[in-house]
Write a structure and sequence with these properties.
By secondary structure, the protein is an all-alpha fold. It is built from 3 helices and no strands. It has helices at about 5-10, 15-30, 35-75.
Length: about 80
């Protein structure tokens, strides 16, 4: 598996991001001796961070849309 950089992770589609996340988790959990375990763990952290950022962004956007909709109904 090729190492991803932060710029590449930030533009990935959600399904591709989740696919990489699951692949790395599987590599780390099913093999006792992974060649580059530390590198995989670091990459896993970057992927998990990106997932959390996107979830937070989605929630903020949904909240914004709800508030915007409520303001329209008041007017």
């Amino acid at each position: 598996m090729r190492k991803l950089n932060i710029d590449r992770i930030s533009i990935m589609q959600d399904d591709e991001l989740n696919s990489h996340l699951h692949k790395i988790k599987n590599l780390l959990s099913y093999r006792n001796k992974v060649e580059n375990k530390k590198g995989l763990e670091i990459e896993l952290c970057y992927l998990q961070r990106e997932v959390k950022i996107r979830e937070s962004r989605r929630k903020a956007h949904e909240s914004f849309l709800q508030k915007k909709s409520q303001k329209r109904h008041r007017e």
